[in-house]
Amino acid sequence: MSAATAHQQKPITDPVRVMVVDDSVVARGLMARWIDEDPALAVVGTLRTGKLAVEQIEKLEPDVVVLDIEMPEMDGLTALPLLLKARPGVQVVMASTLTRRNAEISLKALSLGAADYVPKPESNSGVSTSPEFKRDLVAKVIALGARGQTTARSPQISRPDAPVKVVSKAAPSLVTKATVSAGDMRRWSSSVPRILAIGSSTGGPQALTKFFETVGPSATRVPIVVTQHMPATFTAILAENLGKAAGLPSAEGRDGDVLKPGHIYVAPGGKHMIVKSAAEGAKIALTDGPPVNFCKPAVDPLFDSLAEVFGPAVLAAVLTGMGNDGGKGAVRISDAGGSVVAQDEATSVVWGMPQAVVQNKACCAVLPLDLLAGKVAKLLKGERP
């Protein structure tokens, strides 16, 4: 396989076009094969450097780019803004090994316009023998594919916050336009919030940063718990970044931590974080059970525990993310009298998790991210819904 190989397009309707960029011939070949095996996807090119990717992107016209971080000639972080400039709206998934440095670079890439990241095993043998890596890679490419088909192929709506107006045949269940009526909404809780909980996944780091920039000054009276689908090294850095955005103390949750008002607790990667009642107050408990909704940490266990401990005093937000994690937990919170708000489709990178909440009729409102953050800030200050 050459450094830049154009693949024949599959004889199917409107496949998601994918370009794979990685300097390892083994990793590049494996990722291309896995992606090509899915009937909703078509690999249109494989390249070994960021420089080649920048040179070829206009010719290959991908909807999604899988981009390695460490490459010769031009690394992924340098290539990213050039790729986005050459093909506005293309969805970029960063592929990085689980080092502190690469985690920091991946989160930096998200702030510069990458849509998501996928943790990559450090060795070629690890890549070839990791079913989790294969599953995560393909799932994220599919989840982002419909948005890429819309934004990369339609320059007039290529803004990052543009509504998804075209439903892809490749992944209809992930971006189906919802019809939300007033009759589907729950009533807001009459209780003043005593805890704020947020669940998110794909697109979450960017959304969380914007959310906390607005909410932080109003969140000094309650503890804040966050579950973002991320591996361990990433969640520690995310916690640091959210603390800076909010202007509040922030760290990964530790087993036995007593929840303090005005503190942010981020579920550590590889553990489920829940909350339990204790004599000295509500405490964090970390559990090492199996993945829930293919995720660890998962949102549902956290939401379930909050419904039990705080009942109607829970205020929860479900932000952008693929899959349906948080959908059942939102029902538990709503049934206990708490309030749940979901991010709308237009401002979500992937409208999977918020959509699950909407379909379960478990939320009080569905709002664009800026209005959602503003609403939460007002509720935390004691204003009535």
Summarize the structure.
With 385 residues, the protein is an alpha/beta fold. Helix content is 37%, strand content 18%.
Write up what this structure looks like.
It is a single chain. By secondary structure, this protein is an alpha/beta fold. It folds into two domains: 145 residues, 3-Layer(aba) Sandwich (Rossmann fold); 199 residues, Rossmann fold. The protein contains twelve helices and 14 strands. A seven-stranded parallel beta sheet has the order 8-9-7-6-12-13-14, sandwiched between helices. A five-stranded parallel beta sheet has the order 2-1-3-4-5, sandwiched between helices. Helix 7 links the parallel strand 6 and strand 7. Helix 4 packs across helix 8, helix 7 packs across helix 12 and helix 10 crosses helix 11. The longest helix is centred in the middle third of the chain and has 23 residues. About 8% of the residues have low confidence.
Largest sheet: 7 strands, parallel
Name the strands of the widest sheet in spatial order. Answer: 8-9-7-6-12-13-14
**Count of discrete structural domains:** 2
N-to-C terminal Cα separation, in Å?
A: 59 Å
Order of helices and strands: EHEHEHEHEHHEHEHEEEEHEHEHEH
Q: What structural class should be given to the helix and strand makeup?
A: alpha/beta
CATH architecture of the largest domain: 3-Layer(aba) Sandwich
The CATH class of the largest domain: Alpha Beta
Assign an overall shape: globular
Helical content (DSSP H or I, runs of 4+): 25-40%
Helix count equals 12
CATH topology of the largest domain: Rossmann fold
Percent of residues in β-strands: 15-25%
Which residues form runs of ≥5 with pLDDT under 50?
Answer: 6-12, 156-178
The named CATH superfamily of the largest domain = Methylesterase CheB, C-terminal domain
How many β-strand stretches?
A: 14
Query: Mind telling me the C-alpha Rg?
Result: 20 Å
What's the mean pLDDT score? 89
